[in-house]
Specification:
Elements lengths: L35 H4 L13 H12 L3 E2 L6 H7 L1 H9 L3 E6 L4 E6 L18 H17 L7 E3 H11 L7 H18 L3 E3 L5 E4 L3 H4 L5 H13 L26
Antiparallel strand pairs: 1-3, 2-3, 4-6, 5-6
Helix pairs in contact: 2-3, 5-6, 5-9, 6-7
């Protein structure tokens, strides 16, 4: 039995109203005309997006990181909460998930947990040193002690120096090295992760309510246990869990704080 082949004579003829390009192939269909009532106004030439300006700006703020909270003057946190379903759909396309803590009024992004490569590029984490991680854990304990009191948890540079001094390698425990480690940690927590918020008093900061999302321990005892494990392993270079706040998009601008 001979095989039947489909040659050009058997191919369906193009519709009579089909347009052709310069090479004689059927031209791609023209893009559908924008429906302003459905898609909103065009924000720039060639705009194919459908989110209104306010939501696009909120999306950018989320992507910049490290988090949003209710203290912003432009109410962008409320915009995110009110439109979270639409934003979650857009963020899923980027392998990101939106986390909202309505009690602390904090919103942030986290990469989805997927084994495939190239799914967490937008939310790069920078490693914390042992001393910085222990400082964060102490700050988390301080924040939890203030929970429900109506008062902000604050910490001063002198407190941070005292904490760092207790955890710095004994062979490097001179005043200069302790101050260098402490000031580097402060710069990172103030400028990059925004876990220390400035006050009117110099060298005194409010501990951000986003810290529990960065270090999501359910029980205070777990924090104490982990701190003890880090202290016991001081000379063994233990593997530290990085805080789960994403680095802001501007983290690479300027000096790289190690």
């Amino acid at each position: 039995m001979s095989e039947t082949s489909l040659d050009s004579a058997d191919a369906p003829a193009p519709a009579e109203d089909t347009d052709f390009d310069a090479d004689g192939y059927p031209a791609a269909p023209a893009p559908a005309e924008r429906n302003v009532l459905v898609d909103g106004p065009e924000l720039f030439p060639g705009d194919t997006g459908t989110l209104p300006l306010k939501l696009r700006q909120a999306l950018i703020r989320l992507l910049r990181g490290p988090y949003l909270d209710a203290t912003s003057s432009d109410n962008v946190y409320n915009t995110v909460v009110d439109n979270q379903a639409e934003l979650r759909t857009r963020l899923s396309e980027l392998f990101l998930t939106l986390v909202i803590d309505e009690d602390r009024k904090v919103a942030l992004l986290r990469p989805v947990d997927m084994p495939e490569p190239h799914t967490a590029v937008l939310q790069r984490q920078r490693e914390m040193t042992r001393e910085e991680t222990l400082l964060l854990l102490r700050m988390r304990l301080l924040l939890d002690r203030h929970a429900g009191t109506g008062n902000d948890a604050v910490i001063a540079r002198t407190d941070i120096l005292e904490i760092i001094e207790g955890y710095v390698d004994p062979g490097q425990r001179d005043a200069k090295s302790v101050e260098d480690v402490a000031d580097a940690a402060i710069r990172k927590l103030v400028q990059e992760r925004r876990l220390l918020l400035p006050t009117e008093v110099e060298n005194v900061w409010v501990i951000s309510g986003a810290l529990p999302l960065a270090l999501p321990y359910e029980h205070i005892g777990d924090i104490v246990t982990f701190m003890q494990a880090l202290t016991d392993a001081a000379g063994e270079q233990p593997e530290l869990p990085d805080p789960e706040l994403p680095e802001p998009a501007s983290a690479n601008d300027g000096e790289d704080i190690a």
